[in-house]
Amino acid sequence: MNVLVCVKRVPLTGGRIVLTDDAQAIATQHLGFTISPHEECGVEEAVRLVEQSGGESVVLTLGPAEAEEQLRDAMALGIDRAIHLVTGGDEWDPQGTAAAIVETIEAERPAGVEYDLIVFGNESADAGGYQVGIRVAHALGLPVATGLKGVVVSDGSVRCEQEVPGGRDVFVLPLPAVVTVKEGLNFPRYPSVPGRMRAQRKPVAVRSPDAVSPRLAKVRLVSPPGQKKEAEILGHGPEAAPRVIEVLQKIGVA
Amino acid sequence: MSVLVVVERQPGAVDELSLQAVTFARALADGAPVHALVVGAHADSVTPTLGEHGVTTVHVAEDEVFASYAPLAVARATAELAGRLRATAVVAAGSERGNEVLAHLGALLDLPLAANCVEATSGDPARVTRLRWGGSLLEEADLHGDVKLLTVAPHAVSATHAPVADTSVERFAPQLSDADRVIRVSARTQAATGGVSLAEAKVVVSSGRGAGSAEGFGIIEELADLLGGAVGCSRAVTMAGWRPHTDQVGQTGTKIAPDLYIACGISGATQHMAGCKGAKAILAVNTDPDAPILASADYAVIGDLHEVVPAISAELRKARGA
Q1: What is the dihedral of CA B15, B16, B21, B24, to 10 degrees?
Q2: Contacts of A123 in chain B (CB under 8 A)
Q3: How many beta-carbon contacts under 8 Å exist across A and B?
Q4: Which residues face B127 on adjacent strands?
Q5: CB neighbours of A106 closer than 8 A, spacing ≥ 6?
Q6: Chain A residues lying within 8 Å of B79, measured CB to CB
Q7: What CA–CA distances, in Å, run from B217 to A236, B129, B192, B242?
Q8: Which CATH architecture has domain A2-227?
Q9: DSSP state of B183
Q10: What DSSP designation does A5 have?
């Protein structure tokens, strides 16, 4: 089966988020980059499905030139090839992103490329729009299930499991289908050195979609107010234990 | 003009996040009628509750597909109703299901959707403030479209009463295609039960890389047991394979809301803090007095968790006279 997994380059934010002076982005000059943990599980799932049943695994991103790093990372884990929709660096809104992905999938069809499963993270780490996968599914006329922690493909269908309080809800969709997944779906592997070297030779197809005017248009980013607290220091080392018990009793949990 | 709210139900009641969405919608409607959509058999049992919260009309969509959760069918019913009401905005809770249904609606109507809003003004475009990075950052954005689609971030507002005298109930059978019925829950598997649920625990005791190993969680489990709480962990711990992902607190793990969160050897990365900002109080145990978590904690003990945590357990036993 052929599996497409879509990922987004985001900064590794660490302990404190600092904004650029124009408040349009996170200041990233001292930060590394990654993809969402949900998407890491999506990449792993794509690699496993193709290992089990043959076919081709493909990773796609829409982002700046630097996002090639995330495509190579995915290929180091076993993804066969990559598609890079290169942007000027401005963020695209969910509708624009979905439209560019759909256009790319449709452009591959004359060459005989058809995907059985298209995988997204449930939501991106940064924008958290919860919608690109669903929009792509609608545009392609495919069924979609979201927030999955179980994906089992058999006999032309995919069994999708969603964690809910007390258990899991099961959806069974005919293939081809779109799924959006969550961390916990699987345990992603680490890249090997040979895997990293092979990734450098794998093909990256580059396309330059036309930017459209966003209909959910970012004005500025803002740090949430009033979060900074002054923690009351109860003490140093094990000698602090009696003070801790007093606090537990005050809160009513001792 | 009017505003339509897609309401989720729990057995016998309206979901709390949906009541928050109704309260948010009331402010957005600014005096115009607030309509609610519920789906499924006996759905109108929630009418009195919705009326207390300011809903003027409860619309009940009836179809056998609504016997279980069917997000696309709910979105199709919403689209039909919003058109008939000439709704200027459609609102839902920023829950997994609320976000999913409104994303389907956005795709059906080719309209933008702003997920997890904490504020919104009417107008065209509407100015919204929404969560990014699981709430570690906010975004102000302009939301376009003839009908404004948005979901309300959990706990952005408290549900408040604004009773309506005679809330009416209207039933309808939405036009659904076969494709609309394909996406539905066809079975539910039961989780193995045991221990205290992390999401609902009154106390959560957690650790990060500082635990040192899977075995290092023994003292964390001991304290959690003494307090009748649950064990949590950071993403670094699940990545190391020391604990299952179901124990992970964070943006991509479980969101917790205990009375007390005891974070031992956890630095306080934004990924982690996005999962515990619902905690009423945080006690940090950390060797580093400058760790980022201290900026979010109410109490702190500066020291090595391997010494401090057993001392807390011992003191607790002593206090209980055991």
Answers
A1: 160
A2: 99, 115
A3: 254
A4: B142
A5: none
A6: none
A7: 21, 40, 22, 9
A8: 3-Layer(aba) Sandwich (3.40)
A9: S
A10: E
DSSP state of B185: -
Q: How far apart are CA B74 and CA B191, in angstroms?
A: 26
- The predicted model gives B266-274 an average pLDDT of 94
CB within 8 Å: B295 and A38? no
pLDDT digits (tens, 9 = 90+) for B174-227: 999 999 999 999 999 987 766 778 999 999 999 999 999 999 999 999 999 999
Which of B220, B204, B317 has its CA nearest to residue A245? B317
Q: Model-level pTM?
A: 0.95
Residues of A whose CB is below 8 A from B99: 123, 130-131
A131 to chain B: nearest residue by CA?
B103
User: Per residue in A179-201, pLDDT tens?
Assistant: 999 999 999 999 999 999 999 99
A23 within 8 A of A17, measured Cβ to Cβ: no
Q: Which two tokens stand for residue A81?
A: 């090839």
Instruction: Tell me which residue of A183, A134, A161, A148 sits closest to A36, measured CA to CA.
Output: A183
Whether the CA torsion A4, A131, B112, B118 is positive or negative: it is: negative
How far is A111 from A172, CA to CA, in rounded Å? 30
Does ipTM surpass 0.90 in this model? yes
Please give the single-letter amino acid code of residue B33.
P
Pick the residue from chain A with its C-alpha nearest to B293. A15
Q: Which chain A residue is nearest to residue B292, measuring alpha carbons?
A: A15
